[in-house]
Amino acid sequence: MKPRRSDGSDETIPAAPRVRWLDKKDGRRLIVFTSLGIGLTAGLVFAVMTIFVRLIGGEGSWWRIWTHELGDGQWFEASRVTVALVALTVAGGAAYLAYRRQHTADQNQKTAAETQRITAQAYALSIKQHDATLRRERRDRFTDAAAQLAHTSAAVRIAGVYAMAALADDWHAANDPAEVQTCVDVLCGYLRLPYDPEATENHQTRTTVTTHQFIPGGRTVSGQVEKHFEYRQNDREVRATILRVIKNHLELSAAVSWGDRVFDFHSAVLEDFDINRAIFRGPVSFDGATFTGKTTRFDEAKFTGEQTTFDGAKFTGASTSFCKAEFTGKTTLFDGADFTGERTSFDGAKFTSGWTTFDGAKFTSGWTTFDGAIFTSESTLFDGAIFTSESTTFDWATFNSSHTSFHTAIFTGKRTTFDGVEFTSERTTFDGAKFNSAHTSFHWAKLTGAQTTFHWAEFTGEHTSFDEAEFTGEQTSFHWAKFIGNQTSFDGSRFTGEVTSFDRPVEWRNVYFDWDPKPGRVATAVKPESVKPTEWPPKNFTMESDETHT
Q: Against a cut of 0.85, is the pTM above it?
C-alpha cells in the first residue's frame, strides 16, 4: 500500500540503488584471471607431477619426467597423488574465493540496507516538512476565510463561506477531523450571530433596546441601560449559502460528508431552513433556535447521533415538516419547543431514541399532525404539552415505548384525534390530561399495553368518541376522570382486558356504552364483567364516597 501525504496524495518511496556485480570492465578482468587460473593450475599439476616422479624414480632430471622409466603402477600412483593434491589445492582456493565473494555480497547488502534506511529517513523528513508546509498554508487559508466572513461586503462573505467549506474538505482528505470540526464551528457560529429578517429587508443596521436599571428589591434607580444589536447588510443570501453548503455535505450522495461532525445551531435564526434527507451522525443542537420564513423542512432527515435537541426552539414559519424523519440516537428532546406556524407535521416520523421528550412543548399551529408516527423509544413523553391547534391528529400512530406519557397535556381547538392509534407501551398515561377540543376521538384506538391510565383526565368537549376502540391491556383505568361534554361514546368498543375501570369519576355526564340506554335507542349489549365498577353507572367521586370505598 502506498503511503499518503497529509494532503491525501499518493507518494512513492524512492527505490534503493541496485547493486551491480559486474560491469564491462569487470567482465574482461574475469576472463583474464580465469585464463591465468587455468594456466597456474596446469603449471601446478606439472610441478607436482615432476616432484613425485622424481621421488619415485630416485634419480634423473627433475623436469624431464618423460625420461624416467617407471612401471605402470608407479605412473598411476604419481598421477593419483598429483590429482589429489591439486584438487585439494583448487578446492581450497575455490572455498577462499567463495568466502570472499560472500563477504563482498554481505558488505554490498549492508551498504544497500543502509542506503535504503537513509533514503527512507530523508523521505520521511521531506514528508514531514511537506505536511508542515501544508498545515501552515491551511492555517493561512483559515485566517483569510475568517476575515472574508467578517467583511462588510456580502459578496466577499459568500466567497468566505465557500473558502471555509473547501478548507474543511481538504482537512477531511488529510484525515484531520478536529480541523474539519473547527471549520464547521465557524460556519455554525456565523448563523448564531444576531439576525433579524425584517431588519435585513429594510436595511436596518442596528437595534437599540433601552431598559431601566433595577436594584435588589425591584426598585428603579436613575439611569437607563441600552443594549445595541448590530446587523449585517444583505446577510440573507450569505446565511442561505451557509445552509446550502451544510446540506450538500450532509446528503447521502455527498462527495465529502460532514455527517460525523457536531452541529451547534443553538439560538440561531434560521430562515427557510431546508435540510431534507440530511444525515446527522453526530450530536446536533437547535436549542433556542428560531425557524422563520415560509417553510422549515426536515423531511426524511436522519438523526443518529447520541443527542439531538430542539429545547426551547421556536418554529414560526408558515409550514414546519418533519415527515418521515428518523431519530435513532440516545436522546431526542423538543422540551419547551414552540410550534406557531400554519401547519406542523411529524407524519411518518420514527422516534427510536432512548428518550424522546416533548415536555412543555406548545403546538399552536393551525394544523398539528403526527399521523403514522412511530414511537419506540424507551420513554416517550409529552408531559405538560399544549395542543391548541385547530386540528391535532395522531391518527394511526404507534406508541410502543416502555413508557408513554401525556401527563397534564392540554388539547384544545376544534379537533383532536387519536384514531387507529396503537398504545402498546408497557405503561401509557394520560393522567391529568385535558381534552377540551370540540371533537375528541380515539376511534379504532387499540389500548393493548400492560397499563393505561386516564386518572384525573378531563373530557369537556362537545363530543368525545372511543367508538370501536379496543381495551385489551391488563389494566385500563379512568379513575377520577371528568366527563362533562355533550356526549361521550364508547359505541362498539371491546373490553377484553383483565380490568377496565371507570370507578369514582369526578363527573359522569352523557356517557354512553353499548349496554347503556341512549336517547332514541335501547341497550344493545351486556356489560362485561371486566368493566368496573360492578354497580353501573359509576357514582361520582366525593370525599365521603372515597372514604367509604376505602
A: no
